[in-house]
User: Fold this.
Amino acid sequence: MSINSGSEGATIRRRSWRDVDLRAVAPFAALALLIVIGALVNPNFISITNLANVATRSAFIAIIAVGATFVISSGDLDLSVGSMVAFVASLMILFMNSGVIADPGLMLAAAMVLTVVIGSLCGLANGLITTVGRIEPFIATLGTMGIYRGLTTWLSQGGAITLRSSELQGLYRPAYFGSVFGLPVPILVILIVTAIAAFILYRTRYGRHVTAVGSSRDVARYSGIAVNRVRTIAFIIQGLCVAIAVLLYVPRLGSTSATTGILWELQAITAVVVGGTALKGGAGRVWGTICGAFILELVGNIMLLSNFISEYLIGAIQGSIIIIAMLVQRSLTRKA
Amino acid sequence: MTTTGEGAQTPVLSAERVSKSFGEVQVLFSVDFDVMPGEVHALVGENGAGKSTLVKILSGFESPSSGRLLLDGEPVSLPANGDAEALGIILIHQEFNLAEHLTVAESLFLGREVTRFGILDRRFMRAETRRILDMLGSHVDENALISTLAVADKQMVEIAKAISRDARVIFMDEPTAVLSREETDILFDQVRKLRAAGTSFVFVTHKLNEVMELSDRVTVLRDGQWIKTAPTRLLDSDSIAQLMVGRELSSLYPAKHEPDVDEDVVLSVRALSTAYVKDVSFELRKGEVLGFSGLIGSGRTEIMEAITGLRPRLAGEVVVYGEPLAAEGFREAVRRGLAYMTKDRKGRGLLLDEGMTANLTLQSLERHVRYGYLDPASEREAMARAKRRFDIRVRDDRVRVGRMSGGNQQKLMLAKVMETGPKIIIIDEPTRGIDVGTKQQIYHFIAALARDGCSVIVVSSEMPEVIGLCTRVAVMREGHLVGMLEGDDINEQTIMRYAAGLKRQAAG
Assistant:
């Protein structure tokens, strides 16, 4: 008999069909449908290798989108994440290239810590500009998007920043290409990050406050919730998630440029919205977000494996997906 | 008909035996009302007396359930949704209907723009606007944006708009509620000028001094019934107040519990001022139910929000259990045992898209934290307790709060506030928009709280509620605390006199 806002999708409620939250179920239904379509298009699609490959490649967007779920649930928006990835990753590589620590193991550890700190600070900056500066998050993060991107271009002098030490490269490589008990590391990271995020959002006081602030700032304020603190922390969580994505991104290519992470913010927001989180704030759905990120990657994969749609149309298809997702969300809300 | 002593003129507009029901609830009972050419007719009555409904019927925004309307003595059925403006019958709403981003001239001609060869004739419209404003003696710039105007000027633009449509009868619903004294004087001057030119006004207000000042005739409504229509010169404020009230208090209210005079003072407010409220001081004792009465906009909510730290203070001090309470420290206030229940249930009180439990525990989540996470079982227990204590009745526990009845929402909001375990509870409009059965439950709950040693402040626009519940009543008017009533002074006539500005005590 519990009111269990936390178990979305995982436990479909008994009782009448009317109680089933269609918005929570819809993304998973869409994912299942896509897998069926994929299997029909190309038998190779359904192979474990291919699906694991898709999941691995979705890792960056998925992890960033988990952070975006917090920001969007609390009623804000962060457009700077793509630029933030480029900026944070560039700093990480530059630090490792600087050679201030001789021992490669220690160097790598220090670089990872630094990445997490810089990511959080970038998020903190977004949060403070939005809350203390009282600037619409759309504009505030549009500004920092330009700043982070510009700083990256400046750091790279318009070219690329490449990890020079092959020893470090070798040491760091398994963080993206390795696997634990047969599970690729990026997938493992997605699962851990999402599980922690779900716990925070559904099972802690802070998570409840995020929902309240996103649903109604006024109600939150009149309930004694420190609205600006909650919003700022959501931006910091976003920054942390970007840092984690960077930790996976750097070992993959070992290089960044001014074009790293371009349009990732749109993919992250799409994943969040496809996952059933309302763009106007309130109900956040972390597992739905992951599902949304898989859907985006799967669509690309199916297009690649099929012959009847050009893979150059992938951007158009992803754009259509976000529009369709919004339409579906609205029609489901009306019924509820 | 009720044409009293104005000769054999035909009324411009009149209502004969008009009744109105909304669903099961009848709000007007066979009311007669008429407006003579070139008169200002004041329509007075308490909240819920049916004034607004009558005005809406006379201006075509509602249709009567029975009875008929006459225009120039001929039966008429007014077109709906403001189309009666074409007949010269214009209602100026309490909230202005002006688009903030348009200029004054654009606003005046909104929806009936003058064109030449299909192009807006802006010069003509500006000149015409200027002509009307000059006629009204208003200095408002016809090119100014509405958003830059003072409230009184906006009111003037509304009136200019009415004039530009050749108004014959202008309905004004509490036009001075948002105006300063000076602005009110300007408005009244314009009204007198237009009256001399033959325009009629129906003036809905709570302020009896303004009735005396401006109107030619007064009609009093009470509980949806017509009570009296008379020339203003034959009445005085006291007799009007007398006519407006005069109803017996029923057993809706529990027995009052008088605290001992030597009980501890739990809350004392000293010379508190905000942007609107000026220099308010009072004390609250343990086990007391203190009422705050006054007209809408008199500053009651502002003062309570300033006390609890939800709104900035400009001056003054709030002392809780002998310790000063910092300004803008709402969470600190809650920790110290102070609770505030908003009157805005849907906008500030409850998360309408969430379930009952999330709402109930929102303000007291720390009670349900075990090892850093929220314990669902503990929250469930709290919900079960609250449902019993406040008699919250829902068919399905997982219903979204937005779909619950107003009464259940109100009880849930009260339960939410009480979850913080407060000792001093400020309840703003405890029974707004709920049925009488739930009202009674809430009244008994408030009385029980006081008996248990809690102190309660009830802010209410419903006078019977304040009278029935409270052992002391503070009356606010235009940001000032004008009276603190006790004992036999707690009656509608006296409260009305203070609230309408006919009487005031020295601040204390």
